[in-house]
User: Fold these one by one.
Assistant:
Number 1:
Amino acid sequence: MAKRTSPASKHGRGISESEVRDVEELSTPRSPVIYEVVRRLGDEEMERPATSLWWSGVAAGLSISLSVVAEAILETHLPDAPWKPLVTHLGYSVGFLVVILARQQLFTESTITAVLPVLKDLNRVTLWRMARLWAIVLAANLVGTLVAALFFSLTPVLSSELMHGMVTVSRALLELGMTRMFFAGIASGFLIASMVWMLPSAESSKFAVITLMTYLIAAGGFTHIVAGSLEAYMLVIAGDWAWWQAIVKFMLPVLAGNMVGGTALFAVLSYAQVKDEI
């Protein structure tokens, strides 16, 4: 008579069916699974109506202004000390937490989510869909931060001390040349794309992942086209820059850097590591 095999023995000595399910639930998703989650998210974003993308992008621009406000609050109230910048930069994560957890459209997230579907099926249609998403979301983000900058500057919503703190935080951009802006933008784009790749497997740790990755952008002195645009606008309003300087010295090199870091580096590398498994 053939020996009967117990359910536990099929999966290893002393492991029950319920424990096998627990192992599967606790296992980290394989790279192809994460790729597919991010790719489908990009497909969904590119299928959204233009008006939905626009208003979600404007909301993201408004929300991310809270990063500079939070930094200004810490800058204003913390005592002068060698550790002050490290603590002040914690405020930078606030706006990103609002934008990402609220699922608002942020341009630098789409440098990976919109690119993965294109890499899988490269043709004029997918390229057009990606370009459409990028154009709408970037324009909406920059309009949102401009509205926020004007609101903070032209209304009494903030105290004079906090307004001074926002300008002080923004003046860190004055120390960066265009070359540094570009390469710092590459680092920032890579960090944001890394964060997007990590979120599907983060589950209950999303708050910590977003906080850590965006804190590194501020603490490392890296540049982000959307959050930094509010700082650039504040410098124009304060008289430190003319409009053309905000565009030429900040926006163009940082935009190029973010796209290289998020698309040419992280998205392409992420696709390369799974292309033979999907």
Number 2:
Amino acid sequence: MEKYFPPFYNIIVKKIKKLAYIHDLGGILTKDGLVIKHHKLIRSSNLSKINSEGVDRLADNFKVKRVIDLRTEEEIKQNPEDFITTRIEYLHLPSLTNEQNPAINKLNRLEILDALVHLKGGVKAHMKKLYRTLVNSKKAQNVYKEVFKNLLDDSNDGAILYHCTQGKDRTGVLTYLILSALGVSSITASNVYMSFNRRSILKRVAIWIGMNVAVSPRKAVALNNCLIARRIYINSAIEELDTQYNGVENYLKNQIGLSDEDITKLRNKYLRKLGEKER
């Protein structure tokens, strides 16, 4: 199977304090042998905990000029990104409603987890349904249209950073669509999604142990299934793209509205030849 191993600095970035996850998509190969440029497309976890120094590093080190926040209004109320607008343009484009993705906090997280545990099929079934929703819902599709408009915007010559809370589910589906539009194979795009797990092994083990001791083994497993990227999750989105829309290319064309000219422009803007110097 085709593998994807992102550079270590893309997964754990110590330069930006309290940013749990950041991944520059630069260096990923397309089916045609081209490569994504660095400092152009960046996915991450939420930016609520970084300070002004962290914003400076995003702007200076990663060349970020625009941030797209996919979280719900409720999530943002609990964890606002106050420092971002000091140097970076900020857009709020929620791809799910508050009801589809309720903000989880210390007061309600065990209650929400308990509800998920008792669903038919458990957390995995819930997550697979969520990924199908991220393909099918008009709200999500409208957000993808806006994201691609931003990607095509000639006024932005720096990087676009997009994120949800963890940088896994909403961000993961959007990343799959962006990579597909750029001509990256489905296998590579799926492996990019799975690479999320490499950044959080120790943290997830600590949470799992704590949940086992303080709550219950069953809920520890359930929580882990929420926090981890699983192949069956992204595959549920891919299967929906195939069965309901006759593939991701047709989805990008018919649901998102990307023309052949748009695809060509995206590839010219974000790809380079192997060995070609980055500008």
